[in-house]
Amino acid sequence: MNLATRFSPILVKQIQMSKLHTVIVTTESEGNLRLCGFGSGGRLGPAQHTQYSLKPLPSFNLPVARVALGQDHTLVLTTAGEVYSWGLNRFSQLGYVVELSTTLSGRNEEPIQSVPKRVVGILRREIVCGIAASKIASACWTKETVFTWGTNTGQLGSVWTLTYHQI
Known about the structure:
By secondary structure, this protein is mainly beta.
């Protein structure tokens, strides 16, 4: 890395805020996420404690294009068009099954994915252009199709075919 790159300022590309956390996407070429907020539920990744300052997401070094936040989960769109998610999966809003763990007392824990995991399945061969998240659902779209998952209270619809115009 040359000196100009090493000492150039880190700029902000995107800021997203939810009720319980904030995520910033920077101009760095990789590892360009910074997170802070209330940490329980996995929404900050492996850090399960409240973070008052913006800190990088450990072990996630893929270049990020966009981020979308639900109350208890985070979606990331990489520059390669892949979607990653993590956080609380109470409403199936992560896009994959999270196994429940059992406590010593025999109670089931909340379905928490604290490490970013790629959303595959129907998206395996898709190049995603955008992402969105709410408290109970998530969505992404390609140039031709919208995909939704989570708890459907009428807002998810079904898979759509659309004409995509980039602005």
